[in-house]
Amino acid sequence: MILDNDPLGLYSTDIKCEGSTRATQYCIDDFMKLLYGSRKIVDMTILTCEKYHALMLCFENRDLVVFIKSGLTSGYPGEGPKGTSLIIRLAEEAGIIIKEMKATSSLFKRINSSRATVKDVEFIKKNSTENFDYDRLCLPNVDKEYIKRAKDSFKKNKDIIFVRKEDEKTKDAAEINLGKINKKLDMLIKKLDKIEINTNNSGLSSTLKEILTILSSIKTVFGS
Fold it and tell me: Of 110, 139, 154, which residue is a domain's last?
């Protein structure tokens, strides 16, 4: 019998898939969320299959690998190639090691259907190289100004999402009807008072007194 040194899988590699095959912008957004997140990306492998590209991102503590699905492209003018160029330039700016590997269609399908495995990760690490076709993958019109606009747009949209969520929390809190709560607590306290008067069981009476004390405290909080 082989000894299992990690029966709960506590030291397993966490593999996640982000982005979209249908929208380059989702790939850019998810990459930027990870880039500016709490975990540092140390290397990025561009997986190339024909004109399509997916990404494998490895992080500093090595317990997490994130794939960005193949909504990125190259070889023609358009948003797909611009997205690929932007991500490469952002990775360069952040000091991330960039590699490339030619991938099979079967590997792409596993990534795009969120079924990439630890075996896939190990294979990519072993076969990727830092020599990649920079001129093909980086459009010259994705310059410093383009990158700045993309960053500003990301930060602006991120702030809007945060504010909306906070507003929703405030709205939920404001919609609590304190009048109805106090009315129901009053009715409950009166009912328990009647039960206490009519009962001869001292144990039950003591319990009811404790409940009345708790309810009165709750009413005081909501009434303030």
Answer: 154
| 164 assigned to some structural domain | no
Does residue 190 share a domain with residue 112? Answer: no
Measure the CA angle with vertex 212, ends 207 and 216; round to 5°. 155
Whether residue 171 lies inside any domain: the answer is no
- Read off the pTM: 0.69
- Helix (H), strand (E) counts: the chain: 8, 5
CA distance linking residue 92 with residue 72, whole number of Å:
17
Bridge partner residues of 56 (DSSP): 45, 67
Number of domains in the chain: 2
One domain for residues 84 and 129: yes
Strands (E), the chain: 14-18, 41-49, 52-59, 64-73, 97-102
pLDDT band at 170 (very low <50, low <70, confident <90, very high): very low
Q: Do 59 and 140 fall within a single domain? A: yes
Please report the DSSP string for 171-217 in residue order: HHHHT--HHHHHHHHHHHHHHHHHHHHH---HHHHHHHHHHHHHHHH
Q: Name the band, by pLDDT with cuts 50, 70 and 90, for residue 83.
A: very high
Low-confidence winner among 18-22, 41-45, 125-129, 178-182 (lowest mean pLDDT): 178-182
Q: Residue 212: which domain range? A: 178-223
Calpha distance 175→41 (Å, rounded) = 42
